[in-house]
Design brief:
The chain contains two helices and no strands. It is mostly helical.
Length: 74
């Protein structure tokens, strides 16, 4: 299953806006940790809420959770 052209175009615009907001936030919050692992994973068409650009493979959530715990020293 693939995303439609309309969804892809909308996601490009959304990602541009998010990149601007993330960059801005990183400049002004000292000691901020950034977890950027999304390029290693794909959208999951079997996600319980369906195929969407922000619904990743289960492995993404496991790795993100692991990194958050490491950063917080839990």
């Amino acid at each position: 299953m693939y995303f439609t052209k309309n969804i892809i175009e909308n996601n490009v615009k959304t990602n541009e806006m998010l990149a601007y907001m993330y960059d801005y936030t990183e400049r002004y919050i000292k000691n901020m940790k950034v977890i950027d692992i999304s390029s290693k994973y794909h959208a999951d068409e079997n996600h319980k809420w369906g195929l969407a650009p922000m619904h990743y493979q289960q492995e993404y959530y496991h790795e993100a959770s692991k990194l958050i715990r490491e950063y917080m020293k839990i």
